Each structure stands twice: as C-alpha cells, then as structure tokens.
C-alpha cells in the first residue's frame, strides 16, 4: 500500500517534491521547485556527496545519498539521472506511489518506456517527460516557418554570408570565415 497522497488532494495543497540527480540539469530542477509557490522542495538525492551537499544547502532541502529514502516523503519527483538509469529509478518511484517527471529521453528502449507507462497506469500515478525545450524561444521560432534553415546532421549547409556574420562570438574567426557551417550532434562522453 502506498503512502503517497491521492492525486486529488495533491492539487489542493502544496505539492511535496524531490529531485533525484542534481547534476547540471537536476540543479535547475531543484532551484525552480524551491522557487515555485505551489511546491515544497522536500529533498534532493545524488550519489556525489559534494554536489548533494551543495544543492541541499543552496535550496534548503534535505539531502539523501539514497533516493529511495526520499520517496516516502514526497508526492512527486524529477528524475534527472543518466538515461541508462531512467527505467530503474522511475520504476522504483512509481512502485512507491510517487508521480514522476522524467528527463528526456524517457528510457533506453521502447520496451522500457512501455513498461513505465503501463506501471503508471496500473498505480494511478502520473509520468511526464521533460520536453522543456519546446518552450525555448529558438525552438518555438522553428515552428513558425523557419524549418527550411535546418540542416541534417553530417551535411553541409549552403554558404550564406548573412549566416556567417551572425555566427556566435565564441566561434573562432576561421570557423566564421570557413564558408560552410556544420551542425553536429554533441559528442558523447
């Protein structure tokens, strides 16, 4: 039996939230939850003790070395761990009766994603994928007829001097004057 509140009572009160994984993106989840008037950031969890202490102190939340110790204290969590851990961590949260905001990509495989969706349905819990970039001004502009400017990964874009002039200042002079612009996927660590 779950100790999590029924969904209807959560909407009437401040929702108790936690963040699992407080690296680069997770620290922003924690900061924003701490600032939301309708939420109480109860705790943050991370395997890196230094980062955990830093974010817990900055947000006033309790720190948890093991995310499972946080679950009985919250209504919902943001899961912001490496993608290979998404399925395991989200499944544990849903099994505990906790709603989940899961950073993208949802899981490594479609089968894992299907399992999480079925589990959320069976438990009567919410699972939401964090596609926050859809609210990014640049991404929204792409939806307004600018799609012809996109270039598939690995292909060269047409040389357009006006694009070179607008190249970011952090790019080298050689990059800005090279005559081509390449868009590549980020390198994996």
SSE succession:
HEHEHEEHEHEHHH
Report the total helices. Answer: 8
Tally the structural domains. 2
Within CATH, the superfamily of the largest domain carries the name NAD(P)-binding Rossmann-like Domain
CATH architecture identity of the largest domain: 3-Layer(aba) Sandwich
Proportion of beta-strand residues: 15-25%
CATH class of the largest domain: Alpha Beta
Q: What are the low-pLDDT stretches, counting only 5+ consecutive residues below 50?
A: 156-161, 163-189
User: What's the mean pLDDT score?
Assistant: 79
Profile the largest sheet: 6 strands, parallel
C-alpha geometry: globular
Stated plainly, the CATH topology of the largest domain is called: Rossmann fold
Structural classification: alpha/beta
Strand order of the largest sheet: 3-2-1-4-5-6
Helix-residue proportion: 25-40%
